[in-house]
Amino acid sequence: MTNGLDARIGSGMTRREMGRGALLASLGALTACDAASDSHAAADEHSPWRRDFPVLNQTVNGRSLVYLDSAATTQRPAAVIEAILNFYRHDNANPGAALHTLARRAYERYEGARQTVAEFLNAAQPDEIVWTRGSTEGINLVARAWARPVLRPGDEILLTLAEHASNLLPWRLVAEHTGALVKYVEVDADGRILLEDLDRKLSERTRLVCFSHVSNVVGYINPAAEITARAHRAGARVLIDAAQSAPHTPLDVQALGCDFLVFSGHKVLGPMGAGALFARRELLEQMPPYQAGSNMAHGIDLNTQDYEHGGHKFSAGTPNVSGAVGLAAAIHYVRSQDPALIEHHETELTNYALRRLAEIPGLRLLGPKSAEQRVPVFSFVMKGYTPPAILKHLDSEGIAVRAGDLAALPLLRRFGVTAAVRASCYLYTQTEDIDRLATALLQLTRPGAKES
Ligand code: PLP
User: Fold this and answer.
1) Is the domain of 114 the same as that of 90?
2) Given this model, what pLDDT does residue 446 score?
């Protein structure tokens, strides 16, 4: 279905960039989905997607489960669980194009899933997709197969202070092995990448810029296309860590202009252990294999072999076909929903959560306090309570959150803390979940509640 909204997105403007006002105006302009949008309009309180997620329908510690840990891993809709079961029930075999019927079917499912991921990212060709276990492996693959052979002493890798550990450590290893230097771009008081500092630190020595599209701590959506353009003007390659943006924002590697992009299937309703790296075809051709073995080469003799091309060169051994099938099912599930309605739901949730959290005495929210350019991820600290103590209390109320350094200690230090609590939402989250969180946090602030 094409509508005014899609036309604007087609013009290169992402839904997040349109802002909430324009988005709602576009929603008003929808014709064919007016009926659906009416039923979803009331659904901000009660997510219409929630019933698709069987795991949410349970009690934990005697209370109905409130799952607010989606930035760590999302839950899976029944469609994904069934796709994986069906693969094992009907199609399971070690894949191969010219083998028996079942092997061919497994091969078609596997390569079909690659095509689905390519469409999800708007890659120019499926060969630009490398299967990985997730974002971490994708970053390590680029670090080993692109950066290590290419970087020289004195070259610079630019990261930011807002990176997840998985986008810090691989580059430090590269630096140790090549003599390159790792530098960090500053963030502002709300954890947003500072473009002026990026410009200050970019130079002819910068070979690579790596940054998270969306922070896993503050949920801010960094201007990825702009950062990429600035890095390219300085002659650097760009890797975008889309672990936290893939679930919430449309991804278009051609519009972003990046050289590499990684994401994890399990953060976007897919199975654990299945993710993808996008890399420009010409870079994949230059990169030596990351791991070697069967399936990434043919004609393997004692002294000779012919490596496969594109993404296939980086998949040694028997692949994770059920993971690929599950990830494709997750993408089909997401793509079969109206993205504008999901965004509307998430914006409403964000506004609601920001309001409710602001009511809790002694609670300090880290990062932006408005719903602009952000996803529903909320990290906070509370006076008088350590993050583990808050987590323990919430868990006893059946509420799942995350607490600790959130694998982003440099950013937490920027906020003057070393640990925080994070409540993170997805399309199945509803305002009742936020109410349960707020009520449980308020309990801690009542006179007589034990401090820790
Ligand atoms: N990057 C960011 C921003 C993340 O939030 C995460 C996980 O939380 C990762 C990378 C690593 O993802 P994975 O553990 O799926 O490889």
Assistant:
1) yes
2) 85
